[in-house]
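Late entry, written up from scratch paper. The run itself happened at the end of the previous shift, but nothing got recorded in the book at the time, so transcribing now.
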Amino acid sequence: MEDALSLLQSIKKLDPHFMKSEILLLLGDRLASSIYRDFKGAQQLYKEAKQANEHNVECYVKIGYTYDKLRDYENAIHYYKTALKKDKKEFKALVRLGLVLVRNNEREKGLKYLNQAYSLNQENVELLVKLGEINMKGDTELEQAEEFLKKALSIDPNIADAHLALGKLYEKQNKVEEAIEEFGTCLKLPKPNLSAHFNLALMYEKKKMIKEAIFHFKQCLSLDQSHFGASIHLATLLANLGDMVKAQKYFKHCLRLNPGSVAANFGLAKILHQT
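Output as recorded:
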């Protein structure tokens, strides 16, 4: 990446006008990447790119994206809409505008833009997963949510987010075995997945498979010691099994995470009273 950066900077110095907008966008992409996450710096470069070529729609989308990441949603929406005024079929602008509207409690407006994006590209896996997740939140659209998620997995069966969302959908429908299968599939993928462990533990707890539930709650905590949900469930299960020493340890851990937790305070007080 550093060699590419040096090359871009050299080109910029040798001929400041050569593909200026495109080079500035690439430099901005570097700052906005997961390595640097310098969204303010990236935004400045994207704005310079826009000044160099106001007809480059990509500039407006990327400026909107930086505002989105900085949680300045008003400006994010403005730039996404400006991009769409220049090109009403700009896929990324439609998707990102739709998502930011959904996040800001304008679900119907957001879905309108996401559905427009879907009409342009029905094979985009990321969009399919997002449509599945959003439709899943409405009780009347569960069937459509399932269709989107299954379609995403038919394109790429190794998408953890799709398996996780489908598992949660089955959980919502009280299809415990199907949910367990999806969360389990998530855990077979290379990257550790805390959410899959937690949701799988909840399903095992629901089925009274306590040993399996405890195992996966512990896996959650091995990935994130500050996970309160796993801690309180684990403490409660251990207390119910009569393992008061370990239960007390986890209730105390819960109180370090959240001193005001009623469940943790009550659980610990009950153990101390019994002993």
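The chain is about 75% helix and 0% strand.
(Scratch paper discarded after transcription.)
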